[in-house]
Fold this sequence. Notes:
Structural class: alpha/beta
Strand content: 5-15%
CATH architecture of the largest domain: 3-Layer(aba) Sandwich
Mean pLDDT: 91
Number of helices: 15
Distance between the termini: 24 Å
CATH superfamily of the largest domain: Glycogen Phosphorylase B
Radius of gyration: 22 Å
Order of helices and strands: EHEHEHEEHEEHHEHEEHEHEHEHEHEHHH
CATH class of the largest domain: Alpha Beta
Oligomer: single chain
Number of strands: 15
Largest sheet: 6 strands, parallel
Amino acid sequence: xxxxxxxxxxxxxxxxxxxxxxNVAKLGYEVWVLTSPYNSNYANNKKIIExxxxxxxxxxxxxxxVDIPDWLKLFIKRQNGIxxxxxxxxFHYLLWQRQACIIAKLLDIQLQFDIIxxxxxxxxxxxxxxxxxxxxxxxxxxxxxxxxxxxxxxxYLDQWFAxxxxxxxxxxxxxxxxxxxxxxxxxxxxxxxxKETYELCHRIGKPKRVGFALSSGLPSExxxxxxxxxxxxxxxxxxxxxxxHPRKGLRLTLQALAEVNPDVNFKMTILGDGISKPYIxxxxxxxxxxxxxxxxxxxxxxxxxxxxxxxDVFLFSSLRDTFGAQLWEAMAHAxxxxxxxxxxxxxxxxxxxxxxxxxxxxxxxxxxxxxxIEYLYEHPQKRIEMGRNGYEFAKRNTWEEKAKMMCSYYKExxxxxxxxx
Length: 421
């Protein structure tokens, strides 16, 4: 497995890089993981992984730490040891991919791998070089083909031009990326996290075999044994959790809260940190929400879990997202969802788990979010029903269950290879 980002007990890309190989190994497979000894913040991943394995040994799980040559590091901008910007991280990753392919070929001579699996980065736009091993090769699940809706560009503030640049690359330049084209041509199985990425792939090439799956998940111990029960009160407690970046749509959410019927008694908590943080006080004042919305900053993992348990509804307003790891966390705590009806949330969240908001012109979308809040305030039993459905969905998508699903793909791929032989 190629897992550039990998760290125990984390979410997002690092969690994917750890939990996928861990749980596949627990099913009896001999798993070798290529990963970086450092993450983008240059924390010592190797030390953290080795400590975890020393405390909880998994004999058939092996890590190989791949680093780029020191002279190449001179070309990567850093500030206080941290790689600067997404471009810097991606440049480091592409250099790492090249080195990982060299190491993988040497390992294959010794070990004769049966399956090659690219776990992360989970972006279709960055491709993989591991098809060069000429072994059955799975790429994904990946996203990255989704585009921010131009109808909601006003909520991007000063970040819209950068978002347009990304959209142009995705829509028009990705097809000329030789790494992506070769990945599509040579992958035996491509797994996608949303419809947009699937359609982008088909515009570029003709994949051999495709499927849909989500790469993010939760460890089974994270889920309560039973769906949490909530007492019905006169105040609807809303929760918003995300990195504070314009594309996460916090201003959209706040504008919608200002449209909610004054008879609806609600409180909302904001959790997260990022470049939009300085705007929050002025936004709350602008929309007259100072007494209804509380910003609590970035909390610890355990503190965030408590916020899920103390809330009634989870709001997910991301303007561009493959899926959203926060959705798993919210569903694990039986929270009904309000999500924008696009990208991964559109493809995997069903109507019985929450309310999906049409993405159209801003006024309509804002009002639709406000009406969704009013509906859930007036229908507490519907909140409970949606929350329980979401809990069951999260329960079917733990890392343990995802590993079983992935192993079924491995078996299917190996069987087809034998039949072709």
